[in-house]
Structures are given as C-alpha cells and as structure tokens.
Amino acid sequence: MLKIAFDSSYVYPLPPKHRFPMEKYELLPQQLLHEGTCSEENFFEPEIPNDKYILAVHDAEYYYDFLNLKLSQKEIRRTGFPLSRELVYRERLIAGGTIQAAKFALEYGIAMNIAGGTHHAYSNRGEGFCMLNDQAIAARYLQQKKLAEKILIVDLDVHQGNGTAEIFSDDDSVFTFSMHGEKNFPFKKEKSDLDIALPNETNDKEYLKILKNILPDLIEKVKPDFVFYLSGVDVLATDKLGKLSLSIEGCKKRDRFVLETLKNQNLPVECSMGGGYSEEIKHIVEAHANTYRLAQEIYF
C-alpha cells in the first residue's frame, strides 16, 4: 500500500503571504482523494522525531537556537520564513514524516511525504525556506538503525541540493546526486558527489536524454540499498523561480523513468516533493499528482 505523510501543519503555521504555493500541500491530498488515486488509508499523520535523530545531522547550537526561537535576524531572513513555535513544530514534523515514510518504503517499496525536500538546510543553518534537512535526517536514521548502509539521494529539483551536499560532503556512505538549473538559486553551489548543471531553457527531450544516460550507470556504480528521491516540479517551464522548460508531460516522464528504474532494481525509495512555484496552482498540483499516480501504477 502506498503510504503518504500529511498533516495540516504543513500549511497553516505560515502567514498568509507565505502560503502560496505552500497551499499545494493541502490541495494535493484533496486532488488525490477526489480522483480516486488514493483513499484515506493511504495517508498517515507524521510524528515529531526524537531530537537525537535531528542532531545526527544538524549542529546542536544551530538546532537548539532554532528550537528555542533564538536565531539571529540575519539567520531568520536567510530562511525566508518568520520564526515561530508553530514553524519549529512544522519543520520537525516534516522531518518525522520523511523518517516514517522511509520505514514504510522498506516495507512497500515506496512511500511519500507530501512536504519535505528541504535540501537547502545545512548542518549549521537554514536557507531558502528550509530549516531542517528532512531527507538527510531520514538517511542518517536508517543508517543508525542499521536499516540501510549505502544511500543514494537523487535530487531533481530545479535548485541544487546545496545543504544536502554540505551535510554529506565527507561521507562516502551517502552519495548525493543533484541535477539542477545552472543559473538558478543557490548562486553559490556546493559540491555534490555528482552535479549536473543544466543550461536555461533545457526542454523535455534534452533533460530526459541526460537523465537516462546517467541514472542507471550511477546506480550500478553506487550500489545503494536505499534511495531518497526529491521530485521537485519547479523544472516546469511555467515555474516562476525556475529557468528550465519542461512540460507537465515531460516532468511525468521524468518521474516514470526514475520510479521504474528503482522498481526494476528492487530499490526502496522515499519521495519528498520539493519545490513548485508555477503562477497557477493547478499546474503545481497536477505535476505533483502525477508522481503519486505513477507510484500507484508502478508499485501497486
């Protein structure tokens, strides 16, 4: 059964001016239920993880300053969100959802978090709407619990996973792969284990050709026993913050290739949604919904 982490706290701690496009986190479950792709039993309420799992990734000074609302104004501005207790709860809940989804993926082959993909969160700071790095925390959790040894993070958001790259920069047990827009934020990139920087206006054909030439060989080289997939839909041509030119159908083909490749290799995968900032919310929801439709089709 496809298991999906969702909680209304993904949306409602945020001030109204910050809710678009974060309201996708509420609209996406509604769409999946309405069309029959999912039922209520597919969704689970995430739980706050023990601090020790967050501290396995994030520096204690940064984490406790965040937890106790003691970040500096400069640190707060860097994240893009106003700091509040509700936001702290939200960020911890998202991390917990990804941990739980990773455990469900070991059982069912795949599991999802409606939110997550907070790949701009560094070990010692937040930025770009990311305070705690959910997939990094879940990756380390699996390793601590001896549920996985070698982990591959496939980050196909339009923005480089700079925080994830920094966190695992000296760790051979987690391989970070980021395929992103060369001219997109962050403008100072970190060094992932593999970075593919794409020129502006890269289209479906070019994007898929590059991905198909890389991913199977990368899996063969890395030999992971677990994969985290960041399936951002800010690669769309309609995205306000992205500079690539994929169509919704091209984005769906991307997800199909990734999920079919992992399924054929019997590799469990946790998917976090990442970014999506198109002008019309319907484009964001449709592109994200395709990931769930494909998960049901391919795995169940």
Automatic annotation (TrEMBL):
Q: Which residues form the Histone deacetylase domain?
A: 18-289
Q: Which InterPro entries match?
A: HDAC_classIV, HDACs, His_deacetylse_dom, His_deacetylse_dom_sf, Ureohydrolase_dom_sf
Look up the domain of life of the source: Bacteria
| Keyword line | Hydrolase
| SUPFAM superfamilies documented for this protein | Arginase/deacetylase
- Indicate the family of this protein: Belongs to the histone deacetylase family.
In Swiss-Prot or TrEMBL terms, this protein is called: Acetoin utilization deacetylase AcuC-like enzyme
The protein's organism comes out as Mesonia maritima
